[in-house]
Amino acid sequence: MRQWAGAFNARDLAGTPVGDATIRRGVLFRSGKPEAWLPQGWQDAAADGARRVVDLRDPRELREPISGAEAAGVRYESMPIEDPDDTEFRELMVPYMMHTGQYRDYLRLFGDRVAAAVARIANAGPGTVVCCSAGRDRTGLVTGLLLRALGASPATLLAADELATRTINERHRVSNHPYESFRPEPALSEWVASRAAALEQFYVEVDAAAFLREHGVAVEPAREWLFDE
User: Which of 25, 72, 141, 198 has the highest CB neighbour number within 10 Å of its CB?
Assistant: First the structure.
């Protein structure tokens, strides 16, 4: 996939192994916040196969309007998976969820919303871009649950988290983020290892397929459009 102008932490999940199958090109993507995309970036995304963006953030997180989606023929969908005003959420995850060790509590608080987002993606069809602010935790949780339920190994999902974490860290090298900053080595590798250990434990404790079934979510429709035959 080309670099989408203005986008960060954006990638095509093509080639990701999921059980005996492999995600095909141009059907499922993940990214950081789409309001950062330039008009050319939306055109780039469309040329690579993007047809819709599913944004997992609360709409209040947008600091500027989404611009360029309609002209590129890409549909923007807001599907927030958390309630920023929830008291327990604010106590546990101020200023936001930023570590895989928080995924279990996040599911406890917002399991219905997370499951609904997974259902939307499973049924969306090819050309789906999943995004949040950094393209790391909320995006990683939702795509991870879907792919794990379809048969992806924990090792595959840990590798995806490391890539997202390292990529957003590079953005922090030049960006002025209010809560996070660039981590040089060896601090970065320690952070990645901490996230990996917590994520591995999460998938030990949480049966993704069972969690989704309990919420009435069928992931099988995704098999029709995700994988190479």
Answer: 141
